[in-house]
Amino acid sequence: MSELNMRNSKFKKILVHIDGLEKGSVFAIADFSEYAQPKTVSKALERLSKHGVIEKVVRGIFWLPCGDGSSPDPEKVAEALARENNWSITPSGETAIHKMGLSKKKPKNWTYLTNGAYRSYSFANNEISMLHSDSPYYENLSKKTSLLIQVIKAYGQEKLDERIIHMIRDKYNDSEIRLAMEESKRLPKRFSCTIKSIFEGI
Fold first, then answer.
1. Which domain range does residue 186 map to?
2. Cα–Cα dist 63/58, whole Å
3. What is the pLDDT of residues 145-154, one digit of tens each?
4. 118 and 18 in a common domain
């Protein structure tokens, strides 16, 4: 990084910030709002990308390569997109099942519900789909409870057997269970009853 011009104080702060990140980190223009305006940050990141310090993933999103030929983590990219666009997101479908740790198989298309617009992103043989939803079931809830709702929806009642229920239970600690049970009281009966049946007796 020493070959880059460090005389601009805003650019220097952005560069120092990136230099302190772990390899594989994914970041958005919005993550540097404390240092400069978005247009200035964008120019700085594009400049660093041209010098090979970082790599552009999709518009407004960059990452610090690991140096092993790997590609950015789609989950980290989705979270960066949410920060950049000020969206609330939650995994859905196969993505929710994978995020919960119930399947090691990575989704072909990483899907998320969002209060933002419908958007699709492609990078390094990965696909991310942001699906607009007016449903309140992923907002105003803890992330773990919101994720659980999407897991329940992904499996459906008929496939939510004892084996899966036990796997779900293992992913929650006592405080998370109490919170899920409390938050479930505000949900439609089909969700509140299912959450109660998952955790009852623990």
1. 87-199
2. 10
3. 999 999 999 9
4. no
